[in-house]
Amino acid sequence: MTAARKSPPPSLEDQLRFALAWLERRGTKRVRDGMARYAIPSDTAYGVSMTGIQTLAKLLGKNHELAAALWTTGRYEARLLTAYVDDPARVTPGQMDRWARGFDNWAVCDTLCFALFDRTPHAWAKVTQWSARRGEFVKRAAFALLWGLTVHDKRAGNEPFLRALLLVEDAAADERHLVKKAVNMALRAIGKRNPALNAAAVTVARRLAQSTEPAPRWVGKDALRELTGPSVVRRLAGRK
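^ that's the sequence the OP posted. Answer follows.
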């Protein structure tokens, strides 16, 4: 009896066609219309929920080459999908820079930073580099990435986060909504990591809250409300 011949694995082109067809079949007008409420452009969107995107990612598995092909399509959900399909160990600094320059909405920016970039060995370097960039979404990416690192970099000590607070304080003067919101979230996230970082973040937040400029004043006051609130104080007290 001859052994059954194995089918060859699907080509990259076949996998890309499968992924795009899967997204197109499951896209809905309801989801596309809902994107407008969150200031997400829908002109390149199929209208697939994040749950659907994550379901497709599990079907596809990790595939660095497929992630690159998905990104090149420019389709909204295909770009979100790359965050779950790409292999963080194979992501290069150059790729991170290219993709960050291609960000055109906060959802793709934040998803890539929270689910892919913050798991790469280049994450901390990009926080520093991108925080000095002028482009709105690249600068937001610096602080979305920092926000993600507070959650996912379990091995980091306090020192890199203390250095990052200097970047937060510098960027708090940026009046663009998408930037100052990310700066605020990064400050709050650092202050919730442990008691020592809470104390450092509260000190920065108090300085910002006393600013005569509206952007840093908002960043500081909003962060102080959470970082000195009873919920955070109680949770951090248990970690001492």
